[in-house]
Request: fold
Amino acid sequence: MVNDLVADALTRIRNASMRKLEVTKLLHSKLVESVVKIFQEKGYIESYNIVEDGPKKFINVVLKYDEHGNKVITEVKMISKQGRRVYKPNSEIKKFKNGYGTIVVSTSKGVLPNEVAHKEGVGGELICSIW
Reply:
């Protein structure tokens, strides 16, 4: 059994991207779905859909590659872990990798990318980073 579904999802996306697979299957949770939605909005993945298999739910993620077949995701990394949570105010989450990367932040207004969280004036727990 997996304890941290977000870490498991990021690992599955990272491994599938390194192997240049088209689709990977993630275990479903609301937080994982929010993170994947941000990845799609930012252009790191092609699309995703939720599949119900009896009582369990899964998320099928279609990975994105450029016209030369190179992976779009360079690095995806957990920031907050189960043993060490990382919280930052909105003034410290402005940009990541000079605007080329994204930090996913869990705020009181929901799960947001770092630019939106800074614009709305809210800080929160830094979930993961991607670029």
User: Anything to note?
Assistant: The chain has one domain: 5-130. The chain has a mean pLDDT of 94. The radius of gyration is 15 Å.
